[in-house]
Amino acid sequence: ELKVEQNPLFLSMQEEKNYTIYCNYSTTSDRLYWYRQDPGKSLESLFVLLSNGAVKQEGRLMASLDTKARLSTLHITAAVHDLSATYFCAVTPSNSGYALNFGKGTSLLVTP
Amino acid sequence: NAGVMQNPRHLVRRRGQEARLRCSPMKGHSHVYWYRQLPEEGLKFMVYLQKENIIDESGMPKERFSAEFPKEGPSILRIQQVVRGDSAAYFCASSPLVAGGPTTDTQYFGPGTRLTVL
């Protein structure tokens, strides 16, 4: 069974600070996704990472993938309150490109 | 282009009743996926459907749960004789081609149906 672990699960950080969320997964995978979820809302796709060494950036968020270490990171630069949300990473097993396996999520709270 | 639509958004059922959750995919999307999110957990894959076909139901509980995606109309997730452990948020996602294929097709999620079983 493909397992996906995120840490930390809860993160409270001050505005303008930097931080990194980690996502480890247990078996070979073709691709890794990052999603954002606001309370009571649906999941919004942030990044899709397809290959080893892939790096994508959007605004204050940057995601990277190391397939050898089975590790992805979501780096937050100079956090602002609008980034407060729950962030999920998800991985699809190599033999099933559609069945997303999600981590438990990281609840991020950005405070002044 | 309207996003993935789900209804109802909130559903309350008593133990033993039936729950029907509906999902209308984005226009032009013919692939539908259902996920369940238990409290404090990530989403778990349940089933993948194309029009009139169940492609993969490996994540569905063997009893009481069923899903369909008819030629016309929304996809339906049906839970018979609900129990308290069925209380969760149920999300539907859709994609234009099968997700995880040669393209980077992402699954687009609906707002979810929050089922509460009393």
Describe the structure.
The complex is a heterodimer of chains A (112) and B (118). With 112 residues, chain A is mostly beta strands. Chain A has no helices and eleven strands. In chain A, the strands form two sheets. In chain A, strands 2, 4, 5, 9, 10 and 11 form a six-stranded mixed β-sheet that branches. In chain A, a hairpin with a 5-residue loop joins β4 and β5. The relative contact order of chain A is 0.33. The mean pLDDT of chain A is 91. Chain B has 118 residues and is an all-beta fold. In chain B, the strands form two sheets. In chain B, strands 2, 4, 5, 6, 9, 10 and 11 form a seven-stranded mixed β-sheet that branches. A four-stranded antiparallel β-sheet of chain B has the order 1-3-8-7, with no helix packed on it. Chain B is globular, with a radius of gyration of 14 Å. The model of chain B has no long low-confidence stretch (mean pLDDT 90). Chains A and B meet through β4, β5, β9 and β10 of A and β4, β5 and β10 of B.
Q: Which helices and strands appear, and what pairs or packs with what?
A:
The complex is a heterodimer of chains A (112) and B (118).
Chain A lengths: L3 E4 L2 E5 L4 E7 L3 E9 L5 E7 L5 E4 L2 E6 L4 E6 L8 E9 L7 E2 L3 E6 L1
Parallel strand pairs in A: 2-11
Antiparallel strand pairs in A: 1-3, 3-8, 4-5, 4-9, 6-7, 7-8, 9-10, 9-11
Chain B lengths: L4 E3 L2 E4 L5 E6 L6 E7 L5 E8 L2 E4 L8 E4 L6 E5 L8 E8 L12 E2 L3 E5 L1
Parallel strand pairs in B: 2-11
Antiparallel strand pairs in B: 1-3, 3-8, 4-5, 4-9, 5-6, 7-8, 9-10, 9-11
